[in-house]
Amino acid sequence: MIIGGLSDASSVTPDTVLPTLVVMRAGRTRDLLSAxxxxxxxxxxxxxxxxxxxxxxxxRTEPPGVVLLDWDLPDSAALSMLRQIRTQYPLARCVMLVxxxxxxxxxxxxQADAVLFKGFAAHELMSLMCYFRQTQQEPHA
Length: 141
Hints:
- The protein is an alpha/beta fold and 141 residues long.
- Helix content is 38%, strand content 17%.
- Strands 2-1-3-4-5 form a five-stranded parallel beta sheet, with helices on both faces.
- The longest helix has 13 residues, at 122-134.
């Protein structure tokens, strides 16, 4: 279920922020995604990365509420990183960005909270982020 508005969320206050980590190769797509997410005051962007060890190290000091993982990470690291995050940080919400149906099936089988196909509309991501913000203290379904 995706909820677009925040007005009915009793647990969300105006100062509630959602720490968000973008795990994607450096480039225009990551820059655009970071700019979109950074334009919303309730999203706190953590420094982006594409290196598995750096991401896991960073998560120990700054645990994110949401991790956006690009399926096309170097060395096909996205699936193993998703599994590690699921094991070590069970409250983090994970969104996998994919470009194929097979990648979607694998991401869902590894318990991604959401899967977005590359080329997704901005409102799809923002609806997910609003939903995650509303439910950030609740366990995963």
